[in-house]
UniProtKB/TrEMBL annotation:
Pfam families: DUF484. Keywords: Coiled coil. The keyword DNA repair does not apply. Signal peptide: none annotated. Residues 49-76 form a coiled coil. InterPro entries: DUF484, GAF-like_dom_sf. This is Uncharacterized protein YigA (DUF484 family). It comes from the Bacteria. The lineage of its organism: Bacteria, Pseudomonadati, Pseudomonadota, Gammaproteobacteria, Methylohalomonadales.
């Protein structure tokens, strides 16, 4: 009878009930620490380990992931710092240039060497001022095709990144535009003129819509100011 009574008085809790109890009583194992060593938790290796060992293993994995994320953030910060330094040096070099063609050549060389640009060009939708001969091809004049293709970019005032329109690349780079997989178009502008600086890459992942464009925006503003004396105002 005694065994039967004990069995009758025994209540078997479902796993859901136990789980709910532990969620509602997170300090349970603080009051019963002896249970931690008795519990056996399956480990991915197939071996059984105590709850404490399993928790320590999880904490080590979480710490490793946290360290990895921190290392990645540090690497990104260092890369951005180096990029900002190069942009600063480029701006100083551009301001020291004496003629438009020198400005363009300096810009192109720097972007190709220091910023992994496969293609780069500037297109100004204006006539040149103060130049009687050897006018750079970057001065496209006040024609309508280019202004139509890039009107929204110039009006928006913000660089556009990613897989841009084929017609835009074709206009800027001719047949070579077909090899561009990603790029960025930076607006240039003054009081009565507009233009673009375009950077293209054969790598589809090099430029994407989610990337930061602050430094490129700053470069566009600086370049616009540097070119202003050479742009004919309407």
């Amino acid at each position: 009878m005694t065994d039967d009574n004990n069995k009758a008085n025994t209540v078997t809790a479902s796993p859901q009930t136990v789980a709910e109890f532990l969620r509602e009583n997170p300090g349970f194992f603080n009051e019963h620490p002896e249970l931690l060593e008795q519990l056996q938790i399956p480990h991915p290796s197939g071996e059984a380990v105590s709850l404490v060992e399993r928790q320590m293993s999880l904490l080590r994995e979480q710490n490793a992931r946290t360290r990895q994320k921190l290392d990645n953030l540090i690497d990104i910060a260092r890369a951005n710092e180096e990029l900002a330094r190069r942009m600063h040096m480029l701006a100083l070099t551009l301001m020291d240039a004496q003629q438009p063609q020198e400005i363009f050549n300096t810009l192109y060389d720097s972007l190709r060497k220091n910023f992994a640009a496969d293609f780069v060009t500037v297109c100004l939708f204006s006539e040149a001022a103060g130049l009687e001969e050897a006018i750079p091809a970057e001065f496209a004049g006040e024609e309508t095709q280019g202004m139509t293709l890039f009107k929204s970019v110039i009006a928006g005032g913000t660089p556009q990144c990613g897989a841009l329109e084929a017609a835009q690349w074709s206009y800027l780079f001719g047949d070579a535009g077909e090899t561009i997989a990603s790029g960025v178009i930076v607006p240039l502008h003054g009081d009565s003129w507009g233009g673009v600086m375009a950077i293209g890459s054969c790598d589809a992942e090099r430029f994407h819509p989610g990337m930061g464009v602050e430094l490129l925006s700053n470069l566009g503003e600086i370049l616009s100011i540097i070119l202003k004396p050479w742009v004919a105002l309407r």
